[in-house]
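To the team - 2-(butylsulfanyl)adenosine complex, inputs and output below.
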Amino acid sequence: MADRPGIDTLTEQQAAAELAELARLIARANEAYHTKDAPEISDADYDALKVRNAAIEGRFPHLKRPDSPSEQVGAPPAQGFTQVRHKVRMLSLSNAFAPEDITEFDARIRRYLGLSSDAPLAFTAEPKIDGVSLSLRYEGGELVQAATRGDGSVGENVTANARTISDIPARIDNAPEVLEVRGEVYMAHADFAALNERQAQRGEKPFANPRNAAAGSLRQLDPRITAERPLRFFAYAWGELSKPLADTQTGALKRLAGFGFAVNPLTELCDGPDAMLVHYARIEQMRAELGYDIDGVVYKIDDLGLQARLGFRSSTPRWAIAHKFPAETAWTRLVAIDIQVGRTGALSPVARLHPVTVGGVVVSNATLHNEDYIAGRDASGNPIRGGKDIREGDWVQVYRAGDVIPKVADVDLSRRPEGAQPYVFPTTCPECGSDAIREEGDSVRSCTGGLICPAQAVEKLRHFVSRAAFDIEGLGARQVEQLYRDGWVREPADIFTLRERYGPGRPTQLKNREGWGEKSANNIFEAIDERRKIPLARLIFSLGIRHVGEVAAADLARHFGTWQALVAAVDTAAPAAECHLQADAAEAAERQAAAQEGRRARIKPARDAVWEGLTPEARAAWDDLTGIDGIGATVAVALVTSFRQEAERASIDRLVEHLEVEPDEGRQVTDSPVAGKTVVFTGTLERMTRAEAKARAEALGARVSGSVSAKTDLVVAGPGAGSKEKKARELGVEIIDEDGWFELVGTP
Ligand code: IVH
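Output:
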């Protein structure tokens, strides 16, 4: 520092040059310290650089750089860990709460596999550890990588940290060449208490619960800190394997234990739901004495061959379920009811609560679902909570079930404040003032403002840039919200003209906005360009159409293949969607008339009358659309409604003009005999159930449809196939039987 000129003597040009140099030096020091964990300069020198930078900025405020080090508080870079793409996705589990959910789980699996109710079917039952999941990759017996779950597909590389955990062997003998061991990192109660005591002694914030402590410790950028934290690990699953571990779940766990992993000692083999529930009760009873947190019991099909047949839904296996312990609850005061407007216009009531701790987490909001829920009734008008309504000022019992949003379980009427009034649900949108209407049979009241409603527009944009949608790096919910408020981005298409409007050489530039700089602006422009090419399923999901989630979007993409085909089909089916809605209305009217006249309602004729006069093309397009497995009339109506709404359609069209939409080629599976083909299963199938047939066909890259049309490539017909087989014959579509199907695709 000594050889630098005094601030007062600096010319503007010298000041600008020095600020640039200081920004570079400080950024380099930051990187050395935080990312490489190898500081290059002393703390004192680092501070001196920052002081000088601030002093120059103080004298020449207009020269302050967009990447000024004074704006960066020396925090570690957000991207501290490198990313790891999991070879086999890390999935979550679907949840069950009641004993009936477990009998249904067993029944569902039997239906799927076509097993009778008395065929033997064994399950493992083991505690569900409340920690952080971790995947450990061993190659040639050496631990080569440890990764967190992340979003299931991409996690963080925490190898150095995992190596510090004593339950995790660095080397294992006699293991398959490639072995990914999966399990849970957790912290025992005693260790957690001691850690929090140390934190308090050092004047640092205590952790809210052992899970947070485990997660925080595992994600330390400095592995020396992880090493000081008493983390443990239970192995319960696996990812990529070069050779199977065993034929059964229990056998595989034994192998893992043989490699030196801790496997939970409360794992038991059960012969059905009764035994599973007995073991659940036993584990629940032992819960307080276990010495570590668990939040339920996980049941898994023991036979790994059956696990393979059952496979996965979009993010959970069909062969496992988590039976959660009852949620913790707490009483608190409901201060106010607010209405939030979602991307589809749904008005969602939210309870603002006096903050209260539930299961180690402070809760200050809870969902109230819809107006019926507040009024104390369900969608069919039956009482819930004994018919008690919820009012502002009430004492309410709140609970958290897993990670889901807190809910209100009960209301204490004895503590209801005098003069508390029933809640009046708004009939206009609190954001834009448009009418908020509730369709027949719908529990949700929705704003009719469409894109003129700022809340809907912002929510649509937030959805558009979310991870499963366009996922534009650096352009998250916060950024689009800001850009919307300032009028720079009003709809998704505007994102793709940002560079044209606010890029280099334009009178107003993104890089000059607060919180942005040249580098971040350029990065965004590039990240946006990268997404101009987008897979069809992602595009469909990104539009944020009601009822069209990731799974429906994927089903639609697989069925139609291209954006043009989808649009043409929805447009052609539009008049039929209208008929469908009218048929619902006609049915309701007929039921009412019949009740009044004291006769039986004639529903079918009432519904059918509405469809007369519809063109055969519209009817066929509607049948094709609603015939796609997983897509029913609700999704079809939502698609038509969205595409027919003029402003929304124009906005979608403007967006698509900027994109190159990648066609869906049947899940990119190309080496299967049915890849890209449209298959219809009809009649009785004997060697597999309908659900299994569909899942297998889709896994092989086929589209499965419920109705036969000229687009059908193959019909698999079992005994009793009727009109569909006939139609296939008329259209000259190839027809095979179930054995033919297995000959074609092989057995799993
Ligand atoms: S099996 C394919 N078994 O719970 C499914 N998960 O809610 C693999 N968990 O992400 C998971 N204890 O982090 C399994 N005994 C156990 C578990 C367990 C805790 C966690 C795991 C998973 C989450 C799902």
